[in-house]
Write a structure and sequence with these properties.
- The protein is mainly α.
- It has a domain of 170 residues.
- Helix content is 69%, strand content 0%.
- The protein is built from ten helices and no strands.
- Helix 9 packs antiparallel against helix 10.
- The longest helix is centred in the middle third of the chain and has 24 residues.
- The radius of gyration is 19 Å and the shape is globular.
């Protein structure tokens, strides 16, 4: 027992020193783990996709938990903003993408090689239990792990890093500059190359809410509720470009 406690104490000391020396890792590493494990989904057979989805959700949140003592203040929830804003932004993703598709701007991000291919996942997974297990876990991870790791990266780190890259932690949360506001919105297209137009508008909206509330918790909940509604809309209207 004593040896186990000593081992945990040593490991915690190493994490504390790492977090102090590299505060950027505290906010970047969770998303890095999530994206690294995202590729596993495309490598495993369809029957293993639910396990791969669960793995990236749990592993990325585990990194957040390891660095929990070094995270910035979470702030307040602001539930009216979360519910109203999340519903509006989710609706904007679907309607906005439809409008962009109609005017010829809804395709693949031009600066990234490739093309936009929309496939009904039921063609690969079938319409039975495997599809519903995969969809449910995607939905749960999109409403839990994704908002946490992305908001720590985009709002807590990158919005401040684009103001002062080497001393971002000294920049107060919610500090506005045009470079960080527009920069993060444009960079977000690399994460959503198939929906790059609405991604820019979504990130502008999320940034605006963050400037208003200065609350990481509010943005995590707003992002979570947006994904919650968006996945239901995807299932309802059958637009698998958001899958």
């Amino acid at each position: 027992m004593a040896d186990n406690q000593h081992t945990r104490s040593v490991a915690a000391g190493h994490l504390d020193r790492l977090a102090t020396a590299r505060p950027d890792l505290v906010l970047v590493a969770p998303l890095g783990v999530f994206l690294a494990l995202l590729g596993v989904t495309y490598l495993v057979p369809p029957v293993w996709q639910p396990a791969a989805i669960l793995l990236r959700g749990v592993a990325s949140l585990a990194v957040v938990w390891l660095f929990r003592r070094h995270l910035p203040p979470w702030g307040q929830a602001h539930w009216p903003i979360v519910i109203a804003g999340g519903s509006l932004v989710a609706w904007g993703w679907v309607v906005g993408q439809g409008l962009l598709d109609r005017i010829g701007l809804g395709g693949w991000l031009p600066i990234i090689p490739g093309e936009k291919v929309v496939i009904d996942p039921r063609q690969q997974l079938g319409a039975g239990g495997l599809f519903w297990a995969t969809w449910t876990l995607r939905w749960l991870v999109a409403c839990t792990a994704v908002p946490v790791v992305e908001e720590l990266f985009w709002r807590a780190f990158l919005l401040r890093a684009l103001i002062d890259w080497h001393n971002f932690e000294r920049v107060p949360l919610g500090t506005f500059t045009w470079l960080s506001f527009l920069g993060t919105s444009l960079i977000s297209t690399l994460q959503h190359p198939g929906n790059w137009g609405v991604s820019i508008l979504c990130w502008m909206a999320f940034n605006g809410v963050f400037y208003w509330t200065r609350s990481i918790l509010c943005l995590v909940l707003l992002h979570a509720y947006t994904n919650f509604v968006l996945y239901l809309l995807v299932l309802r209207v059958g637009d698998w470009s958001f899958w």
